[in-house]
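User: Let's play a game. I give you a shape written as tokens, and you guess the letters that built it. Ready? Here's round one.
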């Protein structure tokens, strides 16, 4: 089975060889998470590792481009075009208050019972410290700070 990175037909821009090993590692972890046994887990819990790896891969590319300026704009756009990073999630990270957003489902009010944001978007200071609260969508334990 070939990796998704190998199936991209367009020639990558300069600097690709620097990030390719890390993206290959994310791809390997994603394949493991997809094939992992779901025995004893709720349906939503089986998806949590996939959401986590997707977030980590997008955050890696975001940090390289916006925080460390380690990759060029053509390489960044190449990663977005080939869906190696989530462009809509990155767009949210650039907005104030969403810098640590775990996934887009957590801010969609249509996915909640009462038409509000997910519980992980409530600041930890406003929650009961004795309870561990996990997002039903992605397993996040609080991404609002």
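Assistant: Ready! My guess for every position:
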């Amino acid at each position: 089975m070939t990796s998704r990175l190998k199936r991209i037909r367009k020639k990558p821009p300069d600097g690709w060889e620097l990030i390719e090993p890390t993206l290959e590692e994310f791809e390997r972890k994603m394949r493991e998470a997809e094939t992992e046994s779901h025995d004893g887990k709720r349906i939503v819990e089986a998806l949590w590792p996939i959401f986590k790896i997707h977030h980590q891969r997008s955050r890696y590319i975001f940090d390289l481009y916006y925080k460390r300026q380690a990759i060029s704009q053509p390489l960044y756009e190449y990663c977005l075009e080939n869906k190696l990073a989530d462009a809509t999630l990155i767009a949210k990270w650039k907005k104030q208050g969403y810098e640590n957003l775990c996934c887009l489902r957590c801010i969609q009010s249509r996915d909640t019972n009462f038409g509000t944001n997910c519980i992980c978007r409530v600041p930890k200071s406003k929650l009961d410290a004795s309870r561990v609260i996990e997002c039903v969508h992605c397993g996040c334990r609080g991404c609002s700070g």
